[in-house]
Amino acid sequence: MKTIGIIGGMSCESTALYYARLNAEARRRLGGLHSAECVIWSVDFERIEQLQAAGDWDRAGAELARIGATLEGAGAELLIIATNTIHKVAGAVRAATHVPLIHIAEATAAAIVAAGLKRPGLMATAYTMEQEFYTGALKAAGLEPVIPEPEDRAETHRIIYDELCQGVTLDASRGTYEAIARRLIDRGADCLILGCAEVGMLLSQDNVPAPVFETTLIHADAALEAALADS
To answer: With 185 labelled, which of 27, 73, 149, 161 sits at a CA distance of 20 to 30 A?
Structure first.
């Protein structure tokens, strides 16, 4: 099994989900006491979020590139960034390292295409919903992403940062997310991407009337598949 390098902490809730999924799947697939070989760098998210808010993606990219190179030096044979939004700087990490980086949007797009679906609704941070680094990867796979209207984008983003990233889940916010998901489906979305790990704290297949693609699980599974390949 190859060693997976995890650039995490954005948020820590997201990274905990990745770690749990990787190990559960390793145990399920290999049996016994098997678990995933991982090295993790968990950042102080406050510092990264300030760079995001300031639009200083160059500094954020340089920081994550440094971390990726450090993980490679610590034995990582492939890398994942354990969040959707920071894939904005995935290119910087790839340029600074010599091992594969498994891209979350590319893995998610492949899963949607394999399911025979075409028009995924996307609920995520404003950065992820509005910028081409993510929707472009979906379009490159032949998909036609549907994003919420401006007011719904703003509320989706607010709930992520003001509540979910701080471990807070409110019934009122769950209802808000359910309503936004329904509006995307009414506009022609044939499935829903939970494009931020924290969105899965409020939405799931149980309360969305369309197929749900949870990027955290898809991404973790793709990383484990790569780690087990040829090993």
So the answer is: 161
